[in-house]
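Title: Comparing notes on inverse folding

I've been comparing how different people in this forum approach sequence design from structure. To keep things fair, I'm posting one structure and asking everyone to reply with a full sequence. Here's the target:
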């Protein structure tokens, strides 16, 4: 099977910058009360509807969000394209399982997950590939399973050839919440919550609006 060029570029880029990325964004959740509120609401919904359910975070990186949700009582593991990121996550959070994998081709049985989190990981997926990725999310979730996605708001693509002193080739696709919601609807999800917030003043991320959506798989 031939791997898409954007997958190779994403893997190579994050392998190169894993350590400085981890150090730079380690405190992001601590400085974002609205993100923590969205994650807490998602955790409460999943726990209430699927008390013993299993979850995955796709594009889990160094494991910050996976660990946060684990701390909220969810049975969650992480999957990331970058082996370097997975190695970091395993070292920093040995109580949680992290594996190398692709969000568009998960090694998970049909209908086996209560929840799936894609927190700022669909931003590296070209829009033309999003319907297939969302179809994969739909496949692995149980009926009534919950999906949480986070992304940067906009209509443009930002390309980086360098980050943290390393040569990379990463595209960041900004997305409109209404467009993502429409794609999720087409994939068989009902929107539960939509949040759009201003950028946090202390964040190391680009200073543009940030969005997060919670959606539920239709029976």
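Reply #1:
Here's my take.
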């Amino acid at each position: 099977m031939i791997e898409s060029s954007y997958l190779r570029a994403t893997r190579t880029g994050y392998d190169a910058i894993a350590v400085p990325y981890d150090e730079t964004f380690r405190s992001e959740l601590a400085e974002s009360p609205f993100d923590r509120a969205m994650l807490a609401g998602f955790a409460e919904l999943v726990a209430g509807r699927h008390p013993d359910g299993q979850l995955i975070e796709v594009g889990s990186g160094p494991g910050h969000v996976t660990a946060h949700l684990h701390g909220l009582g969810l049975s969650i593991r992480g999957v990331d394209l970058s082996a370097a990121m997975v190695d970091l996550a395993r070292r920093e959070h040995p109580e949680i399982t992290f594996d190398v994998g692709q969000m568009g081709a998960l090694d998970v049985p049909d209908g086996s997950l209560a929840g799936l989190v894609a927190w700022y990981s669909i931003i590296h997926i070209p829009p033309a590939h999003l319907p297939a990725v969302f179809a994969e999310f739909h496949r692995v979730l149980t009926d009534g399973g919950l999906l949480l996605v986070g992304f940067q708001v906009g209509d443009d693509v930002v390309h980086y050839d360098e980050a943290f002193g390393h040569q990379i080739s990463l595209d960041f696709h900004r997305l409109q919440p209404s467009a993502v919601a429409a794609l999720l609807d087409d994939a068989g999800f009902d929107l539960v919550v939509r949040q759009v917030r201003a950028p946090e003043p202390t964040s190391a991320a680009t200073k543009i609006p940030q969005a997060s959506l919670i959606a539920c798989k239709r029976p």
